[in-house]
């Protein structure tokens, strides 16, 4: 049985694909019943795409940029370019 805190704590591991199949299926079943966690996982998955794109100097979709800025605000740990 997992709750939201457990699930979110496993988020990075899940995205890094360093998780066993069993653990992944536990996360999946939680996400199916929990829109809040699903949204958080979706967001972080998208964020990774953005960071990867930024490293290659690709253009980011405006909608995604806006979403990230909205979530992180002035968080100094995450630099979001507006160019
Ligand atoms: Zn949850």
List the helices and strands and how they pair.
Elements lengths: L3 H6 L1 H5 L5 H13 L1 H21 L6 H11 L11
Helix pairs in contact: 3-4
This protein binds zinc ion (ZN).
The site of zinc ion has 6 residues, from helix 1 and helix 4.
Describe the structure.
With 83 residues, the chain is mainly α. It has one domain. The protein is built from 5 helices and no strands. α3 (21-33) packs across α4 (35-55). The model has no long low-confidence stretch (mean pLDDT 84). The protein binds zinc ion. Zinc ion binds at residues 4, 7, 30, 34, 36-37.
Ligands and ions found: zinc ion
Globally, the shape reads: globular
* Computed CA radius of gyration, to the nearest angstrom: 14 Å
Uncertain parts: none
Reported for the largest beta sheet, the result is: none
Proportion of helical residues: 55-70%
Give the overall average pLDDT: 84
β-sheet strand percentage: under 5%
End-to-end separation in angstroms reads: 44 Å
Number of domains: 1
- Per DSSP, the total helix count is 5
The secondary-structure class comes to mainly alpha
The ordered string of helix (H) and strand (E) elements is HHHHH
Q: Count of DSSP E strands?
A: 0
Supply the key terms:
83 residues; 0% strand
TL;DR?
This protein is mostly helical and 83 residues long. It has one domain. It is built from five helices and no strands.
């Amino acid at each position: 049985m997992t709750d939201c805190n457990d699930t979110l704590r496993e988020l990075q591991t899940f995205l890094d694909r360093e998780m066993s199949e069993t653990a992944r299926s536990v996360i999946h079943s939680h996400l199916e019943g929990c829109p809040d966690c699903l949204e958080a996982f979706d967001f972080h998955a998208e964020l990774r795409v953005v960071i990867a794109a930024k490293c290659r100097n690709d253009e980011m979709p405006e909608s995604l940029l806006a979403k990230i800025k909205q979530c992180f605000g002035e968080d100094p740990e995450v630099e979001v370019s507006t160019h």
